[in-house]
Amino acid sequence: MKNVFFVSDRTGITTEGLGNALLTQFESVVFRKEIIPFVDTLFKADQAIVKINNRFMQDGAKPIVLTSIINPEIRGKFKLPYVCHMDFFESFIPQIENEVGQKASLAIGKSHGIIDENKYYKRIDAIDYSLYNDDGVTIKNFDEADVILIGVSRVGKTPTCLYLAIHYGIKAANYPLVELDLKHDKLPKSLIPYHGKLFGLTIDVDRLHHIRTNRLPHSEYADINTCTREIADAENVMRDYDIPYLNTSKKSIEEIAVAIMHSINLHKKF
After folding, report:
1. pLDDT for position 90
2. Does domain 117-263 have CATH number 1.20.120.790?
3. How confident is residue 121, by pLDDT bands cut at 50, 70 and 90?
4. Do residues 99 and 37 make contact, with C-beta atoms less than 8 angstroms apart?
5. 25, 44, 156, 173: which is deepest, by most CB within 10 A?
6. In the sheet where 31-36 sits, what is the strand order?
7. For the chain, which residues make up each domain, given as ranges?
Protein backbone atom coordinates (compact mmCIF):
# COMPACT_ATOMS: atom_id res chain seq x y z
CA MET A 1 0.00 0.00 0.00
CA LYS A 2 1.23 3.48 -0.89
CA ASN A 3 0.26 6.56 1.14
CA VAL A 4 -0.86 9.60 -0.82
CA PHE A 5 -1.59 13.04 0.59
CA PHE A 6 -3.46 15.71 -1.36
CA VAL A 7 -2.46 19.03 0.22
CA SER A 8 -4.05 22.31 -0.82
CA ASP A 9 -4.34 25.91 0.30
CA ARG A 10 -8.05 25.70 -0.52
CA THR A 11 -10.57 22.84 -0.59
CA GLY A 12 -8.32 20.19 -2.13
CA ILE A 13 -10.97 19.26 -4.70
CA THR A 14 -8.81 20.20 -7.69
CA THR A 15 -5.69 18.58 -6.21
CA GLU A 16 -7.56 15.35 -5.54
CA GLY A 17 -9.10 15.33 -9.01
CA LEU A 18 -5.81 15.86 -10.81
CA GLY A 19 -4.03 13.45 -8.50
CA ASN A 20 -6.58 10.70 -8.95
CA ALA A 21 -6.34 11.10 -12.74
CA LEU A 22 -2.66 10.22 -12.42
CA LEU A 23 -3.01 7.48 -9.81
CA THR A 24 -5.68 5.55 -11.74
CA GLN A 25 -2.98 4.68 -14.28
CA PHE A 26 -1.37 2.37 -11.71
CA GLU A 27 -4.03 -0.31 -11.38
CA SER A 28 -2.00 -2.84 -9.40
CA VAL A 29 -1.05 -0.35 -6.66
CA VAL A 30 -3.29 0.16 -3.62
CA PHE A 31 -3.27 3.81 -2.55
CA ARG A 32 -4.32 5.05 0.88
CA LYS A 33 -5.42 8.62 0.23
CA GLU A 34 -5.93 11.59 2.52
CA ILE A 35 -6.87 15.21 1.78
CA ILE A 36 -5.37 18.01 3.86
CA PRO A 37 -7.20 21.22 2.86
CA PHE A 38 -6.72 24.92 3.71
CA VAL A 39 -2.97 24.76 4.26
CA ASP A 40 -2.49 28.50 3.77
CA THR A 41 -0.02 29.37 6.56
CA LEU A 42 3.39 28.09 7.59
CA PHE A 43 1.90 26.85 10.85
CA LYS A 44 -0.72 24.76 9.04
CA ALA A 45 2.01 23.42 6.75
CA ASP A 46 3.98 22.30 9.81
CA GLN A 47 0.88 20.56 11.19
CA ALA A 48 0.37 18.75 7.88
CA ILE A 49 4.04 17.73 7.80
CA VAL A 50 3.75 16.19 11.29
CA LYS A 51 0.93 13.98 9.99
CA ILE A 52 2.89 13.04 6.86
CA ASN A 53 6.03 12.34 8.88
CA ASN A 54 4.11 10.12 11.32
CA ARG A 55 2.77 8.07 8.43
CA PHE A 56 6.30 7.71 7.03
CA MET A 57 7.61 6.60 10.43
CA GLN A 58 4.79 4.05 10.79
CA ASP A 59 5.12 2.52 7.32
CA GLY A 60 8.79 3.12 6.53
CA ALA A 61 7.93 4.00 2.91
CA LYS A 62 8.02 7.34 1.15
CA PRO A 63 4.54 8.88 0.96
CA ILE A 64 3.48 10.64 -2.22
CA VAL A 65 2.55 14.26 -1.50
CA LEU A 66 0.62 16.08 -4.24
CA THR A 67 0.12 19.78 -3.55
CA SER A 68 -1.51 22.81 -5.12
CA ILE A 69 -0.19 25.69 -3.04
CA ILE A 70 0.28 29.19 -4.42
CA ASN A 71 2.67 30.54 -1.78
CA PRO A 72 6.20 29.33 -2.68
CA GLU A 73 7.39 29.50 0.94
CA ILE A 74 4.56 27.25 2.15
CA ARG A 75 4.96 25.00 -0.88
CA GLY A 76 8.69 24.66 -0.20
CA LYS A 77 8.02 23.18 3.25
CA PHE A 78 6.87 19.96 1.58
CA LYS A 79 10.13 19.40 -0.33
CA LEU A 80 11.20 16.82 2.21
CA PRO A 81 13.79 14.07 1.71
CA TYR A 82 11.42 11.35 2.87
CA VAL A 83 8.49 12.17 0.52
CA CYS A 84 7.85 12.11 -3.21
CA HIS A 85 6.56 15.66 -3.66
CA MET A 86 4.90 17.21 -6.73
CA ASP A 87 3.15 20.57 -6.88
CA PHE A 88 0.70 21.27 -9.70
CA PHE A 89 1.21 25.03 -9.68
CA GLU A 90 4.99 24.70 -9.72
CA SER A 91 4.78 22.15 -12.53
CA PHE A 92 2.54 24.11 -14.90
CA ILE A 93 2.40 27.83 -14.03
CA PRO A 94 5.95 28.70 -15.27
CA GLN A 95 5.27 27.10 -18.67
CA ILE A 96 1.99 29.00 -19.06
CA GLU A 97 3.67 32.26 -17.98
CA ASN A 98 6.28 31.77 -20.71
CA GLU A 99 3.63 31.02 -23.30
CA VAL A 100 1.30 33.94 -22.56
CA GLY A 101 4.03 36.41 -21.69
CA GLN A 102 2.50 37.36 -18.36
CA LYS A 103 3.16 36.54 -14.73
CA ALA A 104 0.47 34.63 -12.84
CA SER A 105 -1.46 36.61 -10.23
CA LEU A 106 -0.79 33.93 -7.57
CA ALA A 107 -4.14 34.65 -5.92
CA ILE A 108 -5.57 31.93 -3.69
CA GLY A 109 -9.06 30.55 -4.31
CA LYS A 110 -9.52 31.50 -7.96
CA SER A 111 -10.87 28.09 -9.00
CA HIS A 112 -13.48 27.56 -6.26
CA GLY A 113 -14.13 31.03 -4.88
CA ILE A 114 -17.15 33.15 -5.81
CA ILE A 115 -15.59 35.15 -8.62
CA ASP A 116 -18.80 35.83 -10.54
CA GLU A 117 -21.91 35.97 -8.35
CA ASN A 118 -24.24 35.62 -11.33
CA LYS A 119 -22.62 32.33 -12.35
CA TYR A 120 -22.58 31.15 -8.74
CA TYR A 121 -26.29 31.72 -8.29
CA LYS A 122 -27.00 29.97 -11.60
CA ARG A 123 -25.40 26.88 -10.12
CA ILE A 124 -27.36 27.18 -6.86
CA ASP A 125 -30.58 27.63 -8.84
CA ALA A 126 -29.83 24.50 -10.86
CA ILE A 127 -29.16 22.49 -7.69
CA ASP A 128 -32.43 23.69 -6.11
CA TYR A 129 -34.27 22.79 -9.31
CA SER A 130 -32.85 19.26 -9.44
CA LEU A 131 -33.70 18.63 -5.78
CA TYR A 132 -37.24 19.93 -6.15
CA ASN A 133 -37.90 17.99 -9.36
CA ASP A 134 -36.48 14.67 -8.26
CA ASP A 135 -38.09 11.26 -8.81
CA GLY A 136 -41.22 12.57 -10.55
CA VAL A 137 -42.52 14.22 -7.39
CA THR A 138 -43.81 17.07 -9.56
CA ILE A 139 -43.84 17.80 -13.28
CA LYS A 140 -45.14 21.36 -13.12
CA ASN A 141 -41.63 22.79 -13.62
CA PHE A 142 -40.58 20.52 -16.47
CA ASP A 143 -40.88 23.44 -18.91
CA GLU A 144 -37.75 24.87 -17.26
CA ALA A 145 -35.74 21.65 -17.53
CA ASP A 146 -32.67 21.40 -19.73
CA VAL A 147 -32.96 17.62 -19.59
CA ILE A 148 -35.34 15.09 -18.00
CA LEU A 149 -33.81 11.72 -17.16
CA ILE A 150 -36.05 8.67 -17.26
CA GLY A 151 -35.45 5.04 -16.32
CA VAL A 152 -36.37 2.37 -13.82
CA SER A 153 -35.62 2.78 -10.13
CA ARG A 154 -31.91 2.74 -9.09
CA VAL A 155 -30.25 3.37 -12.46
CA GLY A 156 -28.54 6.56 -11.23
CA LYS A 157 -31.00 9.29 -12.19
CA THR A 158 -30.82 11.37 -9.00
CA PRO A 159 -27.02 11.50 -8.55
CA THR A 160 -26.59 12.27 -12.24
CA CYS A 161 -29.07 15.15 -12.03
CA LEU A 162 -27.26 16.61 -9.03
CA TYR A 163 -23.87 16.22 -10.70
CA LEU A 164 -25.14 18.03 -13.81
CA ALA A 165 -26.47 20.84 -11.61
CA ILE A 166 -23.40 21.22 -9.41
CA HIS A 167 -20.74 21.01 -12.10
CA TYR A 168 -22.51 22.40 -15.17
CA GLY A 169 -25.46 24.47 -13.94
CA ILE A 170 -27.83 22.19 -15.87
CA LYS A 171 -31.45 22.09 -14.71
CA ALA A 172 -31.99 18.33 -14.67
CA ALA A 173 -35.23 16.70 -13.57
CA ASN A 174 -35.91 12.98 -13.43
CA TYR A 175 -38.94 10.74 -13.71
CA PRO A 176 -39.04 7.05 -12.75
CA LEU A 177 -40.60 4.54 -15.13
CA VAL A 178 -42.66 2.45 -12.71
CA GLU A 179 -44.43 -0.86 -13.26
CA LEU A 180 -47.76 0.82 -14.09
CA ASP A 181 -46.11 2.80 -16.90
CA LEU A 182 -44.17 -0.17 -18.23
CA LYS A 183 -47.14 -2.56 -18.21
CA HIS A 184 -48.58 -0.90 -21.32
CA ASP A 185 -45.25 -0.22 -23.11
CA LYS A 186 -46.19 3.44 -23.33
CA LEU A 187 -44.47 6.64 -22.35
CA PRO A 188 -46.39 8.30 -19.49
CA LYS A 189 -48.78 10.88 -20.92
CA SER A 190 -47.35 13.55 -18.64
CA LEU A 191 -43.99 13.22 -20.39
CA ILE A 192 -45.25 13.46 -23.98
CA PRO A 193 -45.05 17.30 -24.11
CA TYR A 194 -41.41 17.13 -23.04
CA HIS A 195 -40.29 14.44 -25.46
CA GLY A 196 -37.44 16.57 -26.82
CA LYS A 197 -35.94 16.91 -23.34
CA LEU A 198 -35.99 13.22 -22.43
CA PHE A 199 -32.88 11.11 -21.99
CA GLY A 200 -33.00 7.52 -20.78
CA LEU A 201 -30.74 5.61 -18.41
CA THR A 202 -30.63 1.84 -18.36
CA ILE A 203 -28.48 -0.77 -16.64
CA ASP A 204 -27.44 -4.44 -16.81
CA VAL A 205 -29.81 -6.83 -15.04
CA ASP A 206 -27.18 -8.27 -12.68
CA ARG A 207 -26.03 -4.81 -11.66
CA LEU A 208 -29.58 -3.62 -10.92
CA HIS A 209 -30.32 -6.83 -8.99
CA HIS A 210 -27.21 -6.24 -6.85
CA ILE A 211 -28.09 -2.59 -6.12
CA ARG A 212 -31.71 -3.34 -5.25
CA THR A 213 -30.78 -6.34 -3.12
CA ASN A 214 -28.50 -4.16 -1.03
CA ARG A 215 -31.36 -1.71 -0.61
CA LEU A 216 -34.27 -4.12 -0.05
CA PRO A 217 -33.09 -7.73 0.23
CA HIS A 218 -35.53 -10.60 -0.39
CA SER A 219 -38.13 -8.26 -1.91
CA GLU A 220 -40.06 -8.50 -5.15
CA TYR A 221 -38.51 -5.13 -6.01
CA ALA A 222 -35.05 -6.74 -5.96
CA ASP A 223 -36.07 -10.05 -7.53
CA ILE A 224 -34.02 -10.89 -10.62
CA ASN A 225 -37.16 -11.48 -12.67
CA THR A 226 -38.56 -8.08 -11.72
CA CYS A 227 -35.29 -6.43 -12.68
CA THR A 228 -35.17 -8.29 -16.01
CA ARG A 229 -38.75 -7.39 -16.89
CA GLU A 230 -38.49 -3.73 -15.93
CA ILE A 231 -35.27 -3.14 -17.84
CA ALA A 232 -36.58 -4.83 -20.98
CA ASP A 233 -39.86 -2.90 -20.85
CA ALA A 234 -38.12 0.43 -20.20
CA GLU A 235 -35.72 -0.05 -23.09
CA ASN A 236 -38.64 -0.96 -25.36
CA VAL A 237 -40.35 2.32 -24.45
CA MET A 238 -37.18 4.31 -25.12
CA ARG A 239 -36.68 2.65 -28.49
CA ASP A 240 -40.33 2.96 -29.50
CA TYR A 241 -40.37 6.68 -28.70
CA ASP A 242 -36.90 7.32 -30.15
CA ILE A 243 -35.48 8.51 -26.82
CA PRO A 244 -31.67 8.42 -26.60
CA TYR A 245 -30.44 6.30 -23.72
CA LEU A 246 -27.27 5.13 -22.06
CA ASN A 247 -26.24 2.04 -20.08
CA THR A 248 -24.85 3.18 -16.72
CA SER A 249 -23.55 -0.18 -15.49
CA LYS A 250 -19.84 0.43 -15.96
CA LYS A 251 -19.79 4.21 -16.01
CA SER A 252 -19.08 6.71 -13.25
CA ILE A 253 -21.45 9.59 -12.56
CA GLU A 254 -18.92 11.90 -14.21
CA GLU A 255 -18.86 9.80 -17.38
CA ILE A 256 -22.65 9.55 -17.48
CA ALA A 257 -23.06 13.33 -17.12
CA VAL A 258 -20.54 14.14 -19.86
CA ALA A 259 -22.05 11.52 -22.19
CA ILE A 260 -25.52 13.04 -21.72
CA MET A 261 -24.31 16.57 -22.40
CA HIS A 262 -22.42 15.47 -25.49
CA SER A 263 -25.29 13.34 -26.79
CA ILE A 264 -27.96 16.06 -26.63
CA ASN A 265 -25.67 19.07 -27.08
CA LEU A 266 -26.00 20.67 -23.66
CA HIS A 267 -23.50 23.32 -22.62
CA LYS A 268 -22.12 24.39 -19.27
CA LYS A 269 -24.07 27.34 -17.87
CA PHE A 270 -21.21 28.96 -15.98
Report:
1. 86
2. no
3. confident
4. no
5. 173
6. 31-36, 2-8, 64-68, 84-87
7. 2-100, 117-263
